[in-house]
């Protein structure tokens, strides 16, 4: 490893410590309450929601793949790639803020449109991040990895720890993980953003909440993706 890679290694270790740290009391109570709600939702509703999210994500993956520039980071060092990803995060945060403010200001009907629009922005960012770090998103396993990065960013303590394990051991685990657990994927994501997205529908504060929430959601996804891909690259780097 060179000097910059050693610096990144320390940053990745600190990131892993932070995301595996136990959530606060309020977050844990909120998760328990959401779990109780999920228990009383009819199974047919769960199935419909799971299929809806699955179809939405797969359509977004296809569209993002078609519009991603795969040669945008040719010849860049890891430091150069990190800098480019940071710029991408900033750009996507601004886009998400505008989208969140617009749908939040529009009341319930436009507020409901925020979900697929924000999902599209998030997935498009993940494709850009993967391309910058040199991973071929035409490969199924790389698109599956992106979904695990997404789940790592938006999940509860236990799922986050399990997902980090899969990401850290991707080369050996990718053959086992033939398909995403879509039921778990949609429940974790929905539970993670439920409360703030409900506030986004409230007249008068929806625009502010939408912009603020979307900015933070993209910031979280950006940090997660950046460190997940750095982790994979560092595993390939020659040791001192």
Could you walk me through the main structural features you see in this protein, from its secondary elements to its overall organization?
This protein has 240 residues and is mostly helical. It has one domain. It is built from ten helices and no strands. The longest helix has 31 residues. About 2% of the residues have low confidence.
Offer a few descriptive terms.
240 residues; single chain; mainly alpha
Q: Any low-confidence stretches, pLDDT <50, length ≥5?
A: 107-111
Terminal Cα separation, in Å?
A: 6 Å
SSE order, as H and E? HHHHHHHHHH
> What structural class should be given to the helix and strand makeup?
mainly alpha
Instruction: Note the beta-strand portion.
Output: under 5%
The total count of strands amounts to 0
Average pLDDT number: 81
Work out the helicity level.
over 70%
Give a quick precis of the structure.
The chain has helices at 3-19, 25-40, 43-67, 78-105, 107-132, 140-153, 157-168, 170-173, 182-200, 206-236.
């Amino acid at each position: 490893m060179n000097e910059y890679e050693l610096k990144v290694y320390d940053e990745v270790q600190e990131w892993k410590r932070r995301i595996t740290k136990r959530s606060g009391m309020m977050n844990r109570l909120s998760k328990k309450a959401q779990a109780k709600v999920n228990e009383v939702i009819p199974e047919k509703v769960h199935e419909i929601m799971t299929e809806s999210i699955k179809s939405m994500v797969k359509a977004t993956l296809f569209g993002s793949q078609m519009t991603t520039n795969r040669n945008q980071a040719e010849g860049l060092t890891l430091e150069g790639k990190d800098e480019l990803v940071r710029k991408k995060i900033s750009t996507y945060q601004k886009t998400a803020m505008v989208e969140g403010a617009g749908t939040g200001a529009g009341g319930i009907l436009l507020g409901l449109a925020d979900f697929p629009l924000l999902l599209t922005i998030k997935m498009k960012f993940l494709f850009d991040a993967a391309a910058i770090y040199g991973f071929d998103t035409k490969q199924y396993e790389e698109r599956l990895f992106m979904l695990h990065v997404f789940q790592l960013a938006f999940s509860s303590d236990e799922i986050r720890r399990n997902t980090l394990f899969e990401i850290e051991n991707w080369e050996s685990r990718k053959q086992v993980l033939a398909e995403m657990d879509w039921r778990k994927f949609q429940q974790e994501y929905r539970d993670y953003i439920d409360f703030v997205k409900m506030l986004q529908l409230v007249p008068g504060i929806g625009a502010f909440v939408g912009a603020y929430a979307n900015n933070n959601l993209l910031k979280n996804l950006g940090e997660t993706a950046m460190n997940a891909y750095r982790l994979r690259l560092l595993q390939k780097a020659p040791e001192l």
